[in-house]
What we know:
Oligomer: single chain
Largest sheet: none
Structural class: mainly alpha
CATH class: Mainly Alpha
Strand content: under 5%
Number of strands: 0
CATH architecture: Orthogonal Bundle
Amino acid sequence: MTKPLEIDTVQKRFQSSLDRLPPRQLQILRLLASGLTNKAIANKLGISDGTVKSHMSYILPVLGVRRRQEAVAMLTKIQLPENHPFNSIRFDIQNHP
């Protein structure tokens, strides 16, 4: 069984990792957390799905996870401060065909 202190440490490490991501990667992570696929994220941002995959191959190791689902699970578990950049991402996005 994981102790609360260990969980707190893992969450702090994850948040610290989030702080290292640039705004574009935070956007992609936010869209991922909302349940979108790589292709849907690409369409929303007007980039290729290969570019999304490239960003994800950077994001996951920075966050210390291996799978997209792990990143989303951690995002749902941690309590980010309201003023954290992840919470304040605004999307100036047009849907692309």
